[in-house]
Structures are given as C-alpha cells and as structure tokens.
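A reminder before we start the practical. When you read a complex entry, don't treat the lines as separate problems. The point of joint prediction is that each chain is placed relative to the others, so the output describes one connected object in space. Small molecules and nucleic acid strands, if listed, are placed in the same frame. In the example below there are three entries. Take a minute to note the order of the lines before looking further.
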Amino acid sequence: MDSLSNKKKVLEQKPLTLGERLYLPAITKGLSITFSHLFKKAATVRYPEVEREFSTNYRGLHSLKRDEEGRERCTACGLCALSCPAEAITMIAAERKADEKHLYREEKYAATYEINMLRCIFCGLCEEACPKEAIYLDGPIVPADYLRKDFIYGKEKLVEKPLEK
Amino acid sequence: MDAAFVIEKFILVAVIFGVSLLIAMYSTYAERKVAAFLQDRLGPDRAGPFGILQPLADGVKMFMKEEIVPATSNRWLFMVGPGLAMLTACIASAVIPWGSPIAIGDRVISLQVTDINVGVLYIFGVVSLGVYGVMIGGWASNNKYSLLSAIRAASQNISYEIAMGLSIIALLLLTNTLSLKEIVAQQHGWHWNVLYQPVGFLIFMVCAFAETNRAPFDLPECETELIGGYHTEYSSMKLGFYLFAEYINMFISSAVMATLYWGGYNYPGMDYVAATLGTTWAPLIGTAVFFLKIFAFIFFFMWVRWTIPRFRYDQLMNLGWKGLIPLAIANIIVTGVVIAIVEKF
Amino acid sequence: MSTQVFYLVATLSILFSLMVIFAKNPIHSVLYLILTFFTFTVHYVLLNAQFLAVVNFIVYMGAIMVLFLFVLMLLNLNKETEPAKSPVVKIAAAIAGGCLIVTLIGSLKAVSINSPLSLQDPGLGLVENLGKELFGPFLLPFELSSLLLLAAMVGAVVLAKKDHTEEA
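Here is the predicted structure of the whole assembly.
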C-alpha cells in the first residue's frame, strides 16, 4: 500500500558489519557515554532537607482559612464534601455560642472537619465549591506515615494557625 | 614448620579473609554509588556521612529478616547451596600473591598464603567449582525459575571456562610457569603481560565477567525472565550469602586479572622506591598499587554493568563458542609462532 | 601423620562411593560422586601428584560432574518416573555385578601391592616432570589420545550442525 503522507520510510535490516559484530566499538562508545555522566550534576533533590520549588497553582495539603480577624471562615455547609469525587471529606456542624464570636465568622461552624488523605486525589474541587473561600490546597506534600488512621487529618492539622496578635 | 611460620600464615589468612569480606561489603555500597553517579543520581546517602554505613545497615537487615525455607524444597541442599557459593568464592584467594615479601627485622614474610606450583590451575579449578553453589541452590529450591537459572548458570560457566582456559594457555606459553608468584615476579616494573597478550587479556576478562555472572552475562539471575534466578526462593542471610559471594567473586577475579595480566604489585619506578624506602615499606606500597588495580577492575565491572544490556541466551552461546573459543585458539597459535620465531633469531 | 590422613580419606572415599549407589535420589547420587572425586583429589595431593590432582579437580569435579548434574536436573528423575524393572533384569544385573567383583578381586590378587606412600620418584607428579614425560617417551600415545578426542569433537560438531540440504 502506498503511503499517503510520503513520509513512510522502509527500514532495511542490513547484516551486521565486522565492526558491529565485534561488539567492541559499540561497547566502548557506550562506556564513554556512561563515563561522561560521572561528571554531570546529579538531578536528585534531597527531599526533606531541600524542597523543590512548586508552581503557583500546585495543589498540596489542604488548609482551612481564617479571615482577617482570625476567625474560622468555614460554615460547615458541606458543599466541599458534596463536590469531593473521592468522598474524602466529612464534617459535623455545630451552632456558634454567644461567647465564640471571635472564633467563628458565621453562626454555624464545623465542630469536626476531617479529610482522609489516603482518599483525597488533590483535584481541588473542594476549593472551587467553597462559597466562603475557606479551603485551599496550598500546603506542602502530605508526609508519609505508618498507620492508616494517621492519614485522617482533623481540624488540628488543617486549620490555619491563629493570627499573631 | 616452626610455630612462628604457622602463626604468620594464620594471621595472613585471617587478614585476607577479613579484607575480602570488607571489600565485598563495600562493593555493594560502591555498586549503588557507581550506579547512581552513572545515572546522574546521588545513591545511598542517609546512613552516616555519604551513606558510608549503608553496608552495615544492609547487613543488619539481612540478619533480621525472616528466614523462609520452602516446604517442598530439599531442605539440606537448600542450606548447603549458599554456603558452597561463599566457600568457593573465598578459597581462591589462597594463591594470590598480595605483595612482594616484606622484611621485618631479619624475618621475611611472604604475602602469599601458599605458593603451589600449579597456582593458575588451582584458581581455574576453584572457579569451575563456583557453579555448584548456584546449581545446588537452584535445584534444591524446587522452583522452575530457580531450576532454569541453575541450568543456565551451568551451561554458561562450562562454555566460558573453555575460552578462559585457552586464553590462559597463551599466557603460560609466555611465562613458562604455573606459579602465580613467579608470573608476578616476571612482570617486574612495567613488563606487564597485558602488553604482550592484549587479546588474551580481553578474552580472559570477558570470561571473568561470564564466570562471575555479572552483567552483561547475568542471565542466571535475570530479573525480567527468571524473577530472581537461583535465589528466587532464598531469604534472609542465605540470600545475603549468595549476593556476597558474587561480590567476593568479583574481587577475586579482579585480583586474578591484575595478577596475571596487569603486573600484580609491580609498577614503573618500583626499583627506585625500593631503594629509597627499604625492604619493609616498599612492599607495602606495592600492595597498595595492587589494590588500586583491583579497585579499578571492580569499578570497571560496575561501569560495564550499568552500561551494557544483558545478552540473550543464544547470543551468549554464540559469543562463547563461535567468538571467543576460535579467537583464543588463534591467539595460542599466533603466540606460539611468535615465540618460536623470537627464540630462533 | 600422612598414613593416618590416607586412611581417613580412603575411608571417606569408600563411604561416599557407597552413598553414590545407595542414594535414592539421582541428584544426591551425583553429589556424592562429586565428593568421591574430591577425596580422589586429596589422594593425588598425598601422592605428591599436584598436576593430576588439579586436573582431576577441574575436569571431573568442575566440568564433567556439572554436565551430569545438568542433565539429571533437566530429566527430573524421581520415584514416579522410575520404570518398574522385571525380576529377570534384576537377576541379570546381580549376576553381572557379581562377575565384575570376581574379576576385580582376581586381578587385584595378581597385582603385587607395594607400599602406597613410599614413592620412588616424589617429583614425578609435578607439572614440569610430568610434561617432560608426556612429551618425551610417551609422545605417541599422548598425541594418539588427543587425536581420539579431536575425532569425538568433530563428530559432535557434525551431529550438532543444522542440516542445510532440506532448506535448499
């Protein structure tokens, strides 16, 4: 069949020449190539000590944001949990008491908020679904751990640190 | 046989044994480092500075791991396999001259465990026994991959032993002796045998790669086809013994290559050094040079491993039987003719 | 000292050769045979025949036995595959074995046994002397045997070579 693109090349398998059958020229060539790599800079990043620069839209560990007065923004509406394709997010809502106004921005807040990092696929849909701009995937890489239960991150790990007064 | 002689030899054996184990240990580390550097990586660098304690960590890991003996295996032979591999790897070092004799006071200490007058053949014999560890272990595992690997190892070793023996014969035509001590002594200064026997050395080296089951001849432990090869069923320190034996083999074959072809402990300018430093310190420098050569060969083993892909089985047999053996025979004939002509005129 | 070593090694040789016969598993048989050859190597060393010892080591232990082991591993012989032998074969084997023993004992009686450990020429087994003997007085038989080996090798190559006539 004729090629339509005219780019077809028929490769001929020629029998090996004497030099090729000796293997030695090819071997020395290969050896010199690998030897030259001895002097190249290693591409390794020594991870825990040195971290690679992330792109600005990198999605890492979630963080639950506070507003400018240091109050938690999350109102436990559940839209993030609903939007999550991996079903990684669960929460229990609670009503804000009168003396907790400085802690929570809205009248309803998340008493517990858990993300299972083993389920999470870091798609960022929770971030997009949130009407209160409360959750962002702007953290580092989720660290490794030994037990499954340690991968279920609660509020103590997710909520941003309180503002410095 | 006086007591001092026995003690002297005992210490020498202990030191050589210890040094071979130490070098084998650090060869595992060097292998990983060389592999890393050739691939633009860093290699193990967590255990100690530059990862220098990595072999210890690996050793501890090997000892602590659970030991599994397959239920359908031949229990006794399963145990014998790794031990035999280790034994044959270690005993070859007995005839290698590690340095010229050292004079301490009025006592001259030979740095060779024993100088038997068939030293070359002894090494050859021990090398040919090396395959039993692999064969017995592979068969006793009662696993098809192990068995295939054992059979591959046997056929590979036998095929390459022939070419190796023939390449040595050409060398022996030159040296007129089978004693390693004399072979080294003949290569005084820079009169290294490799200058007279480059083809023989090339054949010997290729065969050494094949006999130690190193890449590109690592078909017996080819992961992609045979899982782990003969040590598929092995775990814990038995596996460690097999891996260790490979590195000791590499060390010994490097030492043999350095002894037979690269002048052993001889180096250019050794007479000057011997005259200035005296008979106690000059031999130690010779030994250091010898070890330098050995390390260069070990590096070469690793360098080749991380460069060349594995041979296919038919290519392996082709190279051995159709390539190396005729070449070795031609080498013998050419060497013989040249020697005859040189002696005539 | 040397005599004691001889008797120890000789006992081991006999023990291992008996094990070759009595081992049920053919692989074990071969392994015992290897051990037997090893004791033979020690005997050669005791007789100061270093070259013979090493050659026995390389050729028999290192090459021929590897091939034996190789073939037996491929055959995978075990009790199930062992064919049942008829009593006629067993009786014939017993008679043949008995005849062999009688012949051996008879021929051994004819040989005068000299002291095995006192060598007339202790340097005979060394490489140099052996080579001079082989290439001097025994040159013709030596070359004839090498011719025999060459013929066997050529025969093997001819058998192994592909038949090209069919393809043409």
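Discuss with your neighbour: Chain A has five helices and five strands. What might explain this?
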